């Protein structure tokens, strides 16, 4: 499949871990199309020239040129995202779409998470009926009130990746005697399933506040509708090897960032050739649609944000309503 941004073609991403979070794709794409509002006065400009929105990178990161990750970390990351969303040149996946470059740029350019995050303990921990359930070094909070405390994490995104990728290699060596990137793909999948199952087990524990049922024999459990196929002792081993990085949470971060990198604006280094948008048939951000286009569809060509036509440049310092500039963005019959 050649990435054709003008065609919406159905595809299937086989990884169960990716499929179950695809509903966030729309949010990732929409977020990529949002930029800060500029209320200052603006100098006159060429109405036919694309407008560069404030807050965007000065240039698209070059594939394979990493600014935060070391060479070994990048190699491990590329191997991991390649298994989360496999692909090849004919049918692009995470590697072909530049996801590792996207993640590296995100870590190099942003010091914190997307939302305000509390990093210094003590941390809030939920309880259902008895505050005594909470460890002494945590702040007991009723479970239904935890949302009021926002996002809490002991590690910054940079620490999460630096320690998480090292732990992934360490776990691969513990299980199979070699680095993650050097393993056969079936072994890599086996490790990622362990991390995914560790996340499911943690979610189940939070939902039920009880341990895993003993009648399953430790072979198969259910969590949030997903079957856990990894034995508890293997999950425990992963937790021990990962140390201060939660295996499941690291996998969740990696999976979410993989999806973001596949569907964000190409300006951020991922979604190379707009292949992610072609995969789901998303038309990309457009300045406007005419009434006829709203009813009968459009022939507008998807394009990155920095290629969009200017927005009302004849009103310096005034409002910037989206208007159609016919010189750009329309494929004529």
UniProtKB/TrEMBL annotation:
* Pfam families per the UniProt record, alphabetical: Gluconate_2-dh3 (PF13618)
Biased segments, Low complexity type: 209-221
Query: According to the UniProt record, where is the region Disordered?
Result: 33-64, 202-221, 295-333
Which regions form coiled coils?
none
Designated name of the protein = Gluconate 2-dehydrogenase subunit 3 family protein
């Amino acid at each position: 499949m050649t990435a054709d941004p003008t065609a919406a073609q159905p595809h299937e991403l086989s990884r169960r871990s990716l499929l179950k979070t695809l509903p966030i794709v729309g949010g990732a794409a929409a977020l990529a199309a949002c930029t800060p509002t500029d209320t200052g006065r603006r100098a006159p400009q060429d109405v036919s020239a694309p407008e560069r929105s404030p807050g965007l990178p000065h240039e698209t990161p070059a594939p394979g040129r990493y600014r935060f990750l070391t060479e070994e970390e990048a190699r491990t990351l590329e191997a991991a995202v390649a298994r989360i969303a496999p692909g090849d040149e004919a049918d692009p996946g995470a590697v072909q779409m530049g996801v590792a470059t996207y993640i590296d740029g995100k870590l190099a350019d942003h010091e914190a998470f997307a939302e305000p995050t509390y990093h210094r303990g003590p941390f809030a921990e939920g309880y259902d009926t008895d505050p005594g359930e909470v460890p002494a070094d945590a702040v007991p909070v009723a479970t239904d009130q935890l949302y009021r405390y926002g996002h809490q994490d002991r590690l910054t995104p940079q620490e999460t990746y630096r320690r998480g990728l090292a732990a992934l290699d360490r776990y691969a060596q513990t299980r199979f005697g070699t680095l993650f990137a050097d393993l056969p793909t079936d072994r890599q999948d086996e490790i990622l399933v362990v991390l995914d199952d560790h996340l499911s087990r943690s979610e189940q524990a939070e939902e039920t506040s009880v341990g895993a049922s003993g009648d399953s024999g430790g072979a198969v459990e259910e969590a949030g509708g997903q079957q856990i196929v990894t034995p508890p002792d293997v999950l425990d081993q992963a937790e021990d090897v990962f140390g201060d990085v939660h295996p499941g949470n690291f996998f969740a971060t990696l999976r979410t960032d993989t999806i973001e990198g596949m569907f964000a604006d190409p300006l951020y280094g991922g979604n190379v050739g707009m292949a992610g948008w072609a995969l789901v048939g998303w038309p990309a951000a457009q300045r406007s649609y005419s009434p006829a286009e709203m009813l009968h569809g459009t022939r507008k060509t998807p394009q990155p944000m920095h290629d969009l036509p200017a927005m009302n440049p004849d009103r310096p310092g005034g409002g910037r309503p989206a208007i159609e500039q016919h010189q750009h963005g329309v494929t004529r019959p």
